[in-house]
Amino acid sequence: MQANTLVVNCGSSSIKLALFDHQEQKISSALVERLNTADAFARIEGIDAPLAIEPEARYEQALKVVLSAFEELGLLDSAPSAIGHRVVHGGETFREAVLIDDDVIEGIQACSGLAPLHNPVNLAGIEAMRKLYPRVPQVAVFDTAFHQTLPPKAYMYAVPESYYRDWAVRRYGFHGTSHYFMSRETARRLDRTPATTSLISAHLGNGCSITAIRDGLSVDTSMGLTPLEGLVMGTRSGDVDPGLFDYLDGKGITAAALNDVLNQQSGLLGLSGQTNDMRTLCDLADHGHEPSRLAIDVFCFRLARYIGAMMASLNRIDALVFTGGIGENSSRIREQTCNHLGLLGFELEADLNSAHGGFSDGIISSPESRFPVMVIPTNEELVIASEAKRLAETPTPSERP
């Protein structure tokens, strides 16, 4: 079976690719790791042997290797019908997915100051794929787009208004494709429409965010101007007192150095002093490693606080949903978090939680719980593939009768 849609997600040292058929069923995927180093390699799902990538290979070279392998395996014809790209930051320019042209590329570049670690590498993948497939429609799907429905009271910072007017300083939110998927999939599992479904969506992985979704629309979220704000994450601190910058400047730590620490050396890694992997942390905590136990405690407590805060933006809760690598697979984190929420009426069923919702349609809460609690695997790649296919098949104004 050959692919119809290709999804490309470029990071600073990795590339994730996924192939989908005409029915939007995933066919295969691939991962390039350690890009730009002498140890670069790629793996295709279901193939044991890694693919060799030239040392110091850039995006176009690495993509050629993987795409050639897809063709040799009969998974991809000479060209897909559509290509979807994940782009982290769309600012206020992009409220939805768009067909990529030169103007869109300029718009993404203009947003790069808001996501300097992400947008430039997203653009590198776009430019490489436009070279490789110049006639294939390519679509940008933005992490921030789903959160463009935030009301001003949720997205404005309490700083001089000119900061927003002149420099676009506001809260944008991220993981939008995942939270969008949760809004649709939760509604389906509850036999409701998205427009009549309100939920709290907790996306927990190396990056973590939580979103209040009211009648299918994002109305509050934990990440802000950048993906640093909000929950404790793998290597990111989440919320800190802004006064920390001035205080540590007096200790000889510059703002730039502290920004790097808060993004790369904090969160679970910083608290534990060992790792940002939740599975390893739980094992260390079980063997008496106190810093790992503390890292888990802080993670769960901060998450519970944000769950309570998100309730302020909703008029009802149809479900609290856990997703992402940690959210889907760590019964311990879900239990410990919900234990903080007993006053609000969240109660889990131990067997369902241990099975990650596998005995039901994702529900892990007890019958006595005031609100349903669910585990639903996210599928950001499907959202990107679906948007790419939809826009590629939509006639442009010049093509309409």
UniProtKB/TrEMBL annotation:
Pathway(s) served: Metabolic intermediate biosynthesis; acetyl-CoA biosynthesis; acetyl-CoA from acetate: step 1/2
Reaction(s) catalysed (UniProt annotation): acetate + ATP = acetyl phosphate + ADP
Residues involved in substrate binding: R86
Marked site positions, Transition state stabilizer: H175, R236
Keyword Cell inner membrane appears in the UniProt entry: no
Enzyme Commission numbers on file: 2.7.2.1
Enzyme class: transferase
Subcellular localization: Cytoplasm
Requisite cofactors: Mg(2+); Mn(2+)
GO molecular function: acetate kinase activity
Pfam families: Acetate_kinase
Cofactor binding mode and count: Mg(2+). Can also accept Mn(2+).
Family: Belongs to the acetokinase family.
Assembly: Homodimer.
Function: Catalyzes the formation of acetyl phosphate from acetate and ATP. Can also catalyze the reverse reaction.
HAMAP family, per the entry: Acetate_kinase
Protein name: Acetate kinase
Species for this entry: Marinobacter suaedae
